[in-house]
Design goal:
Elements: H1 7-20, H2 24-36, H3 40-47, H4 57-69, H5 73-86, H6 90-102, H7 106-119, H8 152-166
Length: about 170
């Protein structure tokens, strides 16, 4: 079915198998199929949204990603933290940093950015596909920092960490 592109048929078959013989691995796989098809609510209905220590890594990842897509950032952070606790990686660290910035947890974001920079490899890339129109930014990105509610020490640390990693020594002077 999958080679024919009939993902809904695979979902139906797996659901039927799970009814006949319930199995957590089948539920996790079903949730991944739903998530990959953009059906995040169905994925979460299949495995639940609550944090559970007995969840497989696959289930925790589905919960984290689906909640993030559904803009449930606080709940998503819980599951990303669990993924990070189980197996720290720069990719998960950067996702956590991004969400913590959205939640105004700048110290937590700094911790994850620092980990990501220290443990990333130059061959690991993330592709971003822009779907919006062009936009402009000021020539000097530090010109309007006063409009943001950053604590000076956290902002300074973020600039220092990023500048060192990227090799921009002129901003440190």
């Amino acid at each position: 079915m999958r080679t024919q592109g009939d993902v809904q048929g695979v979902i139906n078959a797996l659901t039927h198998l799970n009814i006949l013989s319930p199995n957590q691995a089948r539920k996790d796989t079903l949730a991944v199929l739903y998530m990959n098809e953009g059906k995040h609510i169905q994925a979460l209905n299949t495995i639940g949204i609550d944090k559970n220590e007995n969840d497989s890594d696959m289930a925790v990842e589905v919960k984290a990603m689906s909640l993030q897509v559904l803009n449930q950032i606080e709940r998503s952070v819980e599951h990303y933290e669990e993924l990070y606790r189980r197996k720290p990686s720069p990719v998960v660290a950067y996702e956590l940093a991004d969400m913590k910035i959205q939640l105004d947890d700048l110290l937590g974001a700094t911790k994850h950015i620092t980990f990501g920079i220290a443990n990333s490899k130059s061959d690991v890339m993330r592709t971003f596909y822009e779907s919006q129109n062009q936009y402009q930014v000021p020539k000097d990105p530090y010109e309007n920092f006063s409009q943001y509610k950053f604590e000076q020490s956290v902002l300074g640390h973020l600039i220092f960490v990023l500048s060192n990693h990227l090799g921009f020594d002129s901003y440190l002077e």
